[in-house]
């Protein structure tokens, strides 16, 4: 057991977050995301039973976002013509704002198929049970500054 580490962060996930270097990316994927096929060259971590928001909040408590890029957080864009609502994105904006002074300005969007291509190059993909659609989020790691 460790002090001040969110309990939702498993030893495996903590190890991966620690191993990641500056500019490495991690995807927190919703339950529909093809984590195993996208993660053939990445570490896939199962977090079944958990949703993206609680994992995002816990991760950002220990994970610095990259300050050298405009958008260290990226969401999968809704496909043109798709009428899906994405209220979870507002939750993400609130969580990011708690941990990064740029708030919603740190968040960008990536077209769906481009997101898949980016995910294939991620260091790790976290597979969740999130039911919200278009709930995938990609984080780019920064440096820890004292």
TrEMBL record:
Q: Which Pfam families match?
A: RbsD_FucU (PF05025)
Q: Which domain of life is it from?
A: Bacteria
What are the TM regions of this chain, as residue ranges?
none
This protein's record includes keyword Cell membrane? no
Per the record, what are the reactions this protein catalyses? alpha-L-fucose = beta-L-fucose; beta-D-ribopyranose = beta-D-ribofuranose
Protein name per its UniProtKB record: Fucose isomerase
Ranges in a coiled coil = none
One GO BP annotation here? fucose metabolic process
Q: InterPro entries this protein is in?
A: RbsD-like_sf, RbsD/FucU_mutarotase, RbsD_FucU
Q: Which GO terms describe its molecular function?
A: D-ribose pyranase activity; fucose binding; L-fucose mutarotase activity
Keywords, A to Z, come to: Isomerase
């Amino acid at each position: 057991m460790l002090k001040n580490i969110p309990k939702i962060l498993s030893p495996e996930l903590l190890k991966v977050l620690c191993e990641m270097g500056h500019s490495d990316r991690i995807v927190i994927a919703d339950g529909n995301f093809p984590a195993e096929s996208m993660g053939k060259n990445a570490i896939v971590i199962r977090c079944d039973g958990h949703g993206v928001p609680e994992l995002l909040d816990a991760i950002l408590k220990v994970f610095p976002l990259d300050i050298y890029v405009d958008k260290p957080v990226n969401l999968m864009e809704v496909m043109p013509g798709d009428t899906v609502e994405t209220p979870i994105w507002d939750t993400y904006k609130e969580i990011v704002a708690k941990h990064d002074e740029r708030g919603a300005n740190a968040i960008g969007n990536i077209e769906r198929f481009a997101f898949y291509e980016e995910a294939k190059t991620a260091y790790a993909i976290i597979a969740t049970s999130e039911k919200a659609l278009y709930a995938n989020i990609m984080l780019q790691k920064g440096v820890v500054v004292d």
